[in-house]
Amino acid sequence: MWAMIATWRMAIEGVTKACNELEKGMDAGDAVELAVREVEDYPFYKSVGYGGLPNENCEVELDAAYMDGDTLSIGAVAGIKDFANPVSIARKLSDDKVNNFLVGLGAEEYAHKNGFERKNMLTDRAKLHYAKRKKETLDKGLSPYAGHDTVGMISLDEKGKMCAATSTSGLFMKKRGRIGDSALSGSGFYVDSEVGGATATGLGEDLMKGCISYEIVRLMKEGKHPQEACDIAVSQLDAELKRRRGKAGDLSLVALNNKGEWGVATNIEGFSFSVATKDEAPTVYVSKVVNGKTIHEVASQEWLDAYAKRIKAPIDID
């Protein structure tokens, strides 16, 4: 049995490409890295990699992580600029005994010494998004903080190995140096080949308050199906944040166990995710919450067409 699940519609091309290789026996780590790189390299996905949305100074700072579910090895980078594929840098760091999580200049120095591709990650389109949002913030009094769609993936290969990876440009117009949950083990991701894995997207500041990816894996270890584990963890954190703080940010999680069973939970409407297994062709689903449970529907062709049109639409800043 092989399988892969990922946050958001933007992952489907990478998932499809990686699953073609999983079918041929590709290692779970190679597959998840391949799939995430596909998202990082596509300029119209404005929350990951090339074309990612910049911070308040119009700089693209990227976060990424990688975890091996067999060895529990972890690598992560945060606040890295001008390198093409942070997920690959994170994976390389996971091979080292120490210094597994590097930030800012340290991460960039490591990437340079290890021959990773330098690239200006700020595109003209991202600059237009920045200019539009800055104008809206000044003219309409809107919050500058919008857009935080991390791509997170869990893979399972034919040998039973599981891996996880994440990549994001983080919160749009964030403070320089701000780090969310995506690069943090237990919050943005966690995977154990003997159990399963989970990965998160949403408001990092709130996702971190629950160490929610680890919590889902813990629930699966107790025998919960991934769907039940996701529903429990998301609903409990959502309720706890509302009780203690009056509100909860966006919380969306995807999970996969070592049997190839998957689950997804969210506290928002319209959360999309991509999944493929040996028995299920690569498919995009859209989720909604009904009576505290997350319900999934296969994305219609109309929905998919509207998505494709939206991400490439001209940006009007007048």
Radius of gyration, whole Å: 18 Å
Tell me the fraction of residues in β-strands, as a range.
25-35%
The shape is globular
Summed up, the helix count is 9
What is the mean predicted local confidence, pLDDT?
95
Gross CATH architecture? 4-Layer Sandwich
Number of domains: 1
Which superfamily, in CATH terms, is the homologous superfamily?
(Glycosyl)asparaginase
Structural class: alpha+beta
Which H/E pattern describes the elements? EHHEEHEHHEEEEHHHEEEEEH
Determine the CATH topology: Glutamine Phosphoribosylpyrophosphate, subunit 1, domain 1
- Give the termini separation: 52 Å
Strand order of the largest sheet: 4-3-2-6-5-1-11-12-13
Question: Could you give the count of β-strands?
Answer: 13
Helix percentage: 25-40%
Oligomer: single chain
Stretches with pLDDT under 50, minimum 5 residues: none
Level-1 CATH class name: Alpha Beta
Active site: 150
Binding site for substrate: 178-181, 201-204
Keywords: Autocatalytic cleavage, Hydrolase, Protease
GO biological process, one term: proteolysis
What would your notes on this structure say?
- This protein is α+β, with helices and mostly antiparallel strands.
- The chain has a single domain (3-311), classed as 4-Layer Sandwich (Glutamine Phosphoribosylpyrophosphate, subunit 1, domain 1).
- The chain has helices at 12-22, 28-40, 86-93, 104-113, 124-140, 204-207, 212-221, 226-245, 301-311, and strands at residues 3-7, 62-68, 74-80, 101-103, 151-156, 162-168, 189-192, 196-202, 251-257, 262-266, 271-277, 280-290, 293-298.
- The strands form 2 sheets. A 9-stranded mixed sheet has the order 4-3-2-6-5-1-11-12-13.
- The radius of gyration is 18 Å and the shape is globular.
- It starts with a strand and ends in a 7-residue tail after the last helix.
